[in-house]
Amino acid sequence: MPTDLLVATALKALAELVGLFLIGRGLIAMLVKFMRQAPDRNVIYQLFVVLTKPVISLVRKVTPSVVVDRHLPVVAFLLVVWIYLLAAGWKLSLCGQYADKGFGPCSAYSSAARQ
């Protein structure tokens, strides 16, 4: 498999994983608030906080100080969505180049699969 195709596939998969972690954190936060619990006492919420903390701290370093810390998970999710879309477009353009060579991630785009 060509290196550029491997990097595009890995970046897209990583963006999917981080995006799902951020969605899970938001859903659990809403559930915890609905149940009127303190988020510090919910183990599952704390697990999602630990999983998403590197991304949110990176977003904190990139964004200006005007952005409130409460909004950082939303900004991080939007950034991950943009990274996912760029990686998907990059992978799609690479699959156009490598489609007839029969590589695993591009086998669905081959001319034999289109017929």
Would you mind describing this structure in some detail?
The chain is mainly alpha-helical and 115 residues long. It has 4 helices and no strands. It has helices spanning 3-34, 43-62, 72-98, 111-114.
* Helix share, percent: over 70%
Contiguous helical run count = 4
Q: Quick one: biggest sheet?
A: none
Structural class: mainly alpha
Note the beta-strand portion: under 5%
Number of strands: 0
Radius of gyration: 19 Å
Shape: elongated
Quick recap of the structure?
The protein is mostly helical and 115 residues long. Helix content is 72%, strand content 0%. It has 4 helices and no strands.
Task: Please name the defining characteristics of this protein.
single chain; 115 residues; 4 helices; 72% helix
What is the fold's blueprint, element by element?
Layout: H1 3-34, H2 43-62, H3 72-98, H4 111-114
Helix pairs in contact: 1-2, 1-3, 2-3
